[in-house]
Amino acid sequence: MREQISACCAGPLDDRAFRAATLDALGVAVPFDAYVWVLTDPVSAVGVSPLAYLPSFDMRRLPRLIRAKYATAINRWTTLHGCVSLVAATKGRLSESRLWRVGSETLRVADIASMVLRDRHGCWGFVDLWRYDGRPFSDEECAFAATLLAMITTAQRARVARMFEPAHDQPSIAPALVLYDDDLNAVGETPAAEPSFRRLLPTQSGDSPVPAAALNVAAQLLAAEEGTDTSPATSRVHAGGAAWLALTAARLQAGSPGMPPSVAVTIDPITVAERLDVFSRATGLTTRETDVLVELSHGNSTRHIARNLSISEFTVQEHLKAIFAKSATASRAQLVARACGTATT
């Protein structure tokens, strides 16, 4: 089974196929009935792209479930290490978890095993494995899953790096705005919101798109207001091809007395600085290599980079060799085009 997961990690599968195949292989040794694997922004750890299978769950309750996930401090991925079951974390008092309480409104939830995909470059995702019936996850099962996390995290980060590869005929993305109430029910949106959501999480043409990234960033704002977590309510998310978007949630001030509280989520094309940050982390660049890349993005020559960073020109060239190898690029032009989002071939 470990060999199967290793093959998934090393293979050519794209992000969603990689996650699905890894879960299939993991389920042989650690059986589960449902799962949620969420790709996250590496800095804020806010979810951006979920892969979920929750049989018998009423999808109309999805906003409520996401709200509960972010509001639950127990086994929260921002403080979690390894793989921990909810039964173990609560010593069997499952009702202490808001996530379990909400999930149990429509499902029989025996246990939830939670794990985080984190390395020195950032937080790349979190995984919840659900058991509806039967015994809880054993310490041995959780310990075994934990031994796989470093390998899976590296592979997940590599999939994010591939999201910067050039694409032909990249359509433009218009800024959008969505308003939610404090229960994450949508109360209004601009016309550009729906096509953005459809690009972030593709759905059938006749189905309404699932605004997962917006719900996650809004839930993070509410969690921060409640003191559950201090991370910013922001995220950077791949929008297909070589395009990326930036999402930000903020509290909307009431315009008149009696106006209900609401959360505004803005969706904008990503800035070059934000894109460079995610690219540098996803490709595993060091701090100094990132500094060199930023200098390159400004069009600076080797001489100017050496002067600005107080290093020798030889050292700049050595850093460039390392960056080329990590980013699978062969020239400065190709590297800058991919990192900054200007590549079309």
Automatic annotation (TrEMBL):
Residues 278-343 form the HTH luxR-type domain. It comes from the Bacteria. Gene3D superfamilies: Winged helix-like DNA-binding domain superfamily/Winged helix DNA-binding domain. GO terms for molecular function: DNA binding. Keywords: DNA-binding, Transcription, Transcription regulation. One of its GO terms (biological process) is regulation of DNA-templated transcription. SUPFAM superfamilies: C-terminal effector domain of the bipartite response regulators. InterPro entries: Sig_transdc_resp-reg_C-effctor (IPR016032), Tscrpt_reg_LuxR_C (IPR000792), WH-like_DNA-bd_sf (IPR036388). This is HTH luxR-type domain-containing protein. The lineage of its organism: Bacteria, Bacillati, Actinomycetota, Actinomycetes, Mycobacteriales.
